[in-house]
Amino acid sequence: MPSNSEDLYNQLGESYEKSYGDNPGQAKILDIVLQKIPPKSKILDVGCGTGKPMAEGFAQAGHEVHGIDSSQTMIDIARSQVKGHFERCNMTEYKAQTTFDVVLGSFSLFHITRDETYSMIFRFAEWLKPGGLCVMNTVLADYLVKDPKLFDDSGECVRHYPHPWMGNTYDITLFTRTGWIEMFEKAGLTFETEVYAPWPATDQHGEEELYLLVLRKTQKEPLFGPYPLPPSYGGPRKFNAAGVLALAQRMGGNETSRIEELLKNSKKLLDMNEPCRESLPYPDNQFDTVMANSSLQYVTDLDKSLHEMARVVDSSNPESFIIVTQPGPDSKVMNLINKVAVPLSQDANFDHHGKILHRASEIFAEHGFGNITVRRVEEVCNFPEKDLSARCSEAAKILAGLWFIDDPGYEKMQQALIPELELHFRDSPHVIGYQTVTLVARPTKS
């Protein structure tokens, strides 16, 4: 049996197209989408396979097709029979150079974990133009899984489901209809239409009911999610230098090098890595750069701090800018803290770092810094401990200790985190995702 999805689809090749290339459900959803998009739209097919039927349908209608797939065999077949640009690339590593009118995922998310799926939904939204369409084709857990005990505690996801398919049995990740729609809504995508399409059994697969979903991008910036935004960001948090250091010592990624690249030409820099203050002791227009790196959750008055940051930067200097970095909506570290630790704390307010970034974009624009770019940065916390129990114990201590080491619920938080971490490390044995978002605000172009 193939060891991963790349090997699987390299092996399947044309046999996959024979089973799925003539799909009436996909043909129906294709017709629906073609009526909704402008001529010569840009289409991104994520997990494009052989290019049939979806990429081919868009190409034949005169649209510009870009397809990615981890299987070189599938890419070679797609290039041979569909007009478009096709490249071999793992979807979790893909970096789009443009935005698209349609982002399509046809049965391509079964082989990644729950957390990776959640992150991919935000990526789909990031890759879309405002108002663009996301098209998802899948099989629902509601249809395939009959035993309720196999669902996780959300009731909307089944992990590591052993599914017989194309001559072998594979562990796949499944979501219910509600689970899919909730994830999309958190990324700023709004439901438009859906199609249920029965698919008769063949010698390669059993009878299936396909679920096809169309959503529209209604929020400009997915990385300010999860949506809907709350009235406030949830802070302030109590700054714990030891807790921050313990987390930082486990970090790995490229955030530092990217920020260093941004800062290399700065002449007057105010680095606000310590908890930001609501009243800065500097005159107006004193600096050409102000940076706050994961520190705005510690301020008492967020708006006042943001106004102060913008006040001390010279908006008349076209080279000046403000940088704010906060955890992203798909940061597993933050999502575990919000799910497990926060409800056990004295101050049970959930942290919403997207709200911080959203408010920063509004206030900076008021001060003339309306040229705003937002990008994700992939970082992880490393836990190399070989023993699972020791690994979970260390991770629980670090996550609970980031903000709650003096909280009466600190010990209970650690205990409650253990089963969540055991489940997480089954999918990602030695890392916990700490995706961050960097907002850069430059003077508004005249």
Report on the structure:
This is phosphoethanolamine N-methyltransferase. Its EC number is 2.1.1.103. Pathway: Phospholipid metabolism; phosphatidylcholine biosynthesis; Lipid metabolism. The protein has 2 domains: 5-220, Rossmann fold (3-Layer(aba) Sandwich), CATH 3.40.50.150; 241-442, Rossmann fold (3-Layer(aba) Sandwich). The chain has 15 helices and 17 strands. The chain is 35% helix and 25% strand. It has a 7-stranded mixed β-sheet, sandwiched between helices. The chain has a 5-stranded mixed β-sheet with strand order 11-12-13-17-14, with helices on one face. The longest helix has 18 residues, at 410-427. Helix 5 links the parallel strand 2 and strand 3 (85-88). The protein is an alpha/beta fold and 446 residues long.
Write the layout of secondary structure elements.
Elements: H1 5-12, H2 14-20, H3 24-34, E1 42-46, H4 54-60, E2 64-69, H5 72-81, E3 85-88, E4 100-106, H6 114-127, E5 128-139, H7 141-144, E6 157-165, E7 168-175, H8 177-186, E8 189-199, E9 208-217, H9 241-248, E10 251-253, H10 255-263, E11 269-271, E12 289-293, H11 302-311, E13 321-327, H12 332-341, H13 353-366, E14 371-377, E15 379-382, H14 388-401, H15 410-427, E16 431-433, E17 436-442
Parallel strand pairs: 1-2, 1-4, 2-3, 4-5, 11-12, 12-13
Antiparallel strand pairs: 5-9, 6-7, 8-9, 10-15, 13-17, 14-17, 15-16
Summarize the structure.
This protein has two domains: 5-220, Rossmann fold; 241-442, Rossmann fold. The protein has 15 helices and 17 strands.
